[in-house]
Write a structure and sequence with these properties.
- The chain has about 160 residues and is α+β, with helices and mostly antiparallel strands.
- The protein has 2 domains: about 20-50; about 75-155, Ribosomal protein L7/L12, C-terminal domain/Adaptor protein ClpS (Ribosomal Protein L30, Chain: A).
- It has helices spanning about 5, 25-45, 90-100, 105-115, 125-145; strands at about 75-80, 120-125, 150-155.
- Helix 3 packs across helix 4 (about 105-115) and helix 3 packs antiparallel against helix 5 (about 125-145).
- The longest helix is centred in the first third of the chain and has 23 residues, at about 25-45.
- It starts with a helix and ends with a strand.
- The structure holds L-tyrosinamide (TYC).
Length: about 160
Amino acid sequence: MLEPRDLGACGGAAAFRGSTPPVKSARRRAMFLPMIAQSTLSARIASGPGPGSGDDVTAPAKPKTVTRTKLERPKLYKVLLLNDDYTPRDFVVMVLEAEFGMGEDRATQVMLTAHRKGSCVISVYPRDVAETKVQRANEYGKKFGFPLQFIAEPEE
Ligand code: TYC
């Protein structure tokens, strides 16, 4: 039969069941408190902070900035026909039909508006389309020796 004194450092509470523990419980707690505190601390360090760890370790604050990409609508460019005193009316109508896909009636209206008012907006396009159309339409005038002019400008 084991006597409490034989248990030495391995003695547990069960060994003292029914008998008086050699050290009063309050004193025993006080004795072991530093060790418990130390071992709990080591376990916490090993497991790291996390749910249930009881640590009030605050994770580094996430930046609260939300980046929203705002898509800009691509700017449109007006293509205008400018009047001059030399290009024949029929030639202007022919260019409008060929380069801007207008029917004869529409092309005639546009040509007459430019003739009377100095200029006429033909249509609006994305920048690259507008610039290409202007370049191609201006080629007709150059090729035939007329000062016919189309220009592109950004829409307000
Ligand atoms: N004004 C020109 C004429 O009388 C005709 C013309 C019209 C030329 C429109 C250019 O954009 C133009 N012959």
